[in-house]
């Protein structure tokens, strides 16, 4: 599912036809309803992910962007094993991992760590900084010597700017930016290959966001990390990401390297998103105002998921869901209008 620059490289993470639905009613009695005098079973669900396929290569910083509720965070949780997919597959380093029982997933959990959005909720308030950082090292390395644990924790603390004097303090004694540094250090203590970051800077003050973002970029270079970076902030993507996947209602509508996507966005939704970025340039694109409301993920529209808000939708768009198709630029776009050259 990738551009030509990545075609020759081995895939580290391969996501295929991923679906995730959350049932609205858990029991049989809740699903039974009377309709026109008959007892019927109504199985409604929120369709959070709808057929997502992505390839992630070593050294990538793949950013997944889109509006709130489009399924970005659900992808992060499914990829890391916190949620089971409804269908589809996840292959990590040529091994399928989505169907494995929890015990067999442990080696892959060490190699793929997650940084959560809210640093105020992701740290255990009853554990000191030292305990927080030592716990994953001991868990993933049974029998490791105390001296080795201490050495590893001190090395990671120094690399992310966590003051050694913080060791015996608790999370409530720190600011949001400091807590997120501790969260990043916790993820790095087990030497992962992939970091799944779920909006890691959105809960921080603007003055701190750049510091944390620079820290993540430095860690990528120093430790040869691969990122799956979930965000809604396109200005962050432009500086951080190597490639960008744009999501709408749980599906990928455009996938391209960062320069291509920001230079020549093709999908109407991508164009609308980029037009909303505040810029000082006089030649900035005119703001595109989308019509209509976002459809409910409980009852998805037929055909293209974006057709209810698209300025270019025609009858084919309302009847047939488009596939991600590769363009000459290397980008992949799911749009009948682009395929038919109706949209420039």
What do you see in this structure?
Residues 1-5 have low confidence and may be disordered. The chain has twelve helices and 14 strands. The strands form three sheets. An eight-stranded mixed beta sheet has the order 8-9-10-5-11-12-14-13, with helices on both faces. It has a single domain, classed as P-loop containing nucleotide triphosphate hydrolases (Rossmann fold). It is 32% helix and 22% strand. The chain is an alpha/beta fold.
Write a concise keyword list for the protein shown above.
single chain; 344 residues; alpha/beta; Rossmann fold; eight-stranded mixed β-sheet; four-stranded antiparallel β-sheet; 12 helices
What is the makeup of the main sheet? 8 strands, mixed
Output the CATH class name: Alpha Beta
Low-confidence stretches: 1-5
Query: How would the global form be characterised?
Result: globular
Helix/strand order: EHEEEEHEEHEHHHEHEHEEHHHEEH
Overall CATH architecture: 3-Layer(aba) Sandwich
Q: What's the end-to-end separation, in Å? A: 22 Å
So, the CATH homologous superfamily?
P-loop containing nucleotide triphosphate hydrolases
Q: Classify the secondary structure makeup into a structural class.
A: alpha/beta
In the sheet with the most strands, the strands line up as 8-9-10-5-11-12-14-13
Q: How many strands appear in the DSSP assignment?
A: 14
The tally of helices reads 12
Cα-based radius of gyration, to the nearest Å = 22 Å
Strand portion, in percent?
15-25%
Whole-number count of domains = 1
Average pLDDT? 89
Summarize the amount of helix as a percent range: 25-40%
Which fold name corresponds to the CATH topology? Rossmann fold
């Amino acid at each position: 599912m990738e551009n030509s620059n990545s075609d020759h490289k081995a895939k580290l993470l391969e996501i295929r036809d991923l679906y995730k639905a959350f049932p609205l009613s858990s029991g049989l009695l809740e699903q039974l309803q009377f309709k026109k005098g008959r007892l019927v079973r109504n199985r409604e669900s929120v369709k959070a992910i709808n057929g997502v396929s992505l390839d992630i290569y070593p050294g990538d910083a793949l950013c997944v962007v889109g509006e709130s509720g489009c399924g970005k965070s659900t992808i992060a949780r499914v990829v890391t094993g916190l949620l089971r997919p409804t269908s589809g597959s996840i292959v990590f380093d040529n091994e399928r991992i989505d169907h494995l029982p929890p015990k067999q997933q442990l080696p892959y959990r060490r190699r793929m760590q997650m940084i959560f959005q809210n640093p105020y909720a992701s740290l255990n308030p009853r554990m000191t900084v030292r305990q927080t950082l030592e716990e994953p090292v001991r868990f993933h390395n049974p029998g490791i010597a105390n001296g080795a644990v201490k050495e590893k924790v001190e090395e990671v603390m120094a690399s992310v700017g966590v003051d050694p004097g913080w060791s015996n303090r608790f999370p409530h004694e720190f600011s949001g930016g400091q807590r997120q540094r501790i969260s990043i250090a916790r993820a790095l203590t087990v030497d992962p290959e992939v970091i799944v970051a779920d909006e890691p800077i959105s809960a921080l003050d603007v003055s701190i966001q750049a510091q944390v973002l620079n820290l993540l970029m430095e860690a990528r270079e120093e430790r040869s990390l691969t990122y799956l970076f979930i965000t809604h902030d396109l200005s962050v993507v432009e500086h951080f990401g190597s490639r960008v996947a744009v999501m709408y209602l749980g599906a990928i509508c455009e996938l391209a390297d960062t320069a291509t996507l920001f230079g020549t966005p093709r999908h109407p939704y991508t164009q609308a998103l980029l037009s909303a970025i505040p810029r000082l340039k006089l030649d900035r694109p005119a703001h595109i105002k989308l019509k209509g409301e976002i459809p409910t993920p409980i009852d998805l529209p037929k055909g293209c998921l974006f057709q209810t808000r698209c300025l270019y939708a025609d009858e084919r768009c309302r009847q047939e869901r488009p596939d991600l198709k590769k363009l000459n630029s290397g980008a992949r776009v799911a749009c009948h209008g682009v395929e038919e050259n109706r949209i420039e």
